[in-house]
Amino acid sequence: MMAMVGDSGDEVVGRIICETYGSDLGPQQPFPNNCVLCKRCGKWVGNDGKAQMRKLRIRVRG
Ligand SMILES: [Zn+2]
User: Fold this and answer.
1) How far does the centroid of ligand 1 lie from the alpha carbon of residue 31, in Å?
2) Scanning 9, 22, 25, 42, which has its CA 20 to 30 A from the CA of 49?
3) Which domain holds residue 25?
4) If you measure from the C-alpha of residue 16 to the centroid of ligand 1, how many angstroms do you get, rounded to a whole number?
């Protein structure tokens, strides 16, 4: 993995990289529960780049 050097700011924030497509989804979130929607996969991706299971209210028949 390449180290990315962006603007030389005082704050060093990692990037969220989708593990499926390698897309840069933006800076990492301050809270681990926060996820970013990857538009390519249509999945919510956490700071670790892995798709997260969102607690969706799904009605299951039966
Ligand atoms: Zn993705």
Assistant:
1) 19
2) 9
3) 15-52
4) 10
Quick check: 46 and 27 in contact, CB under 8 A?
Answer: no
Each residue's pLDDT tens digit in the chain (62 positions)? 556 655 655 667 899 999 999 999 999 998 878 899 999 999 999 999 999 876 556 677 76
Judge whether 43 lies within some domain: yes
Q: Quick check: pTM over 0.85?
A: no
Q: Report d(CA 48, CA 51) in Å as an integer.
A: 9
The Cα 48–Cα 26 span in angstroms is: 12
Is 4 inside a domain boundary? no
* Centre of ligand 1 from the C-alpha of residue 40, in Å: 5
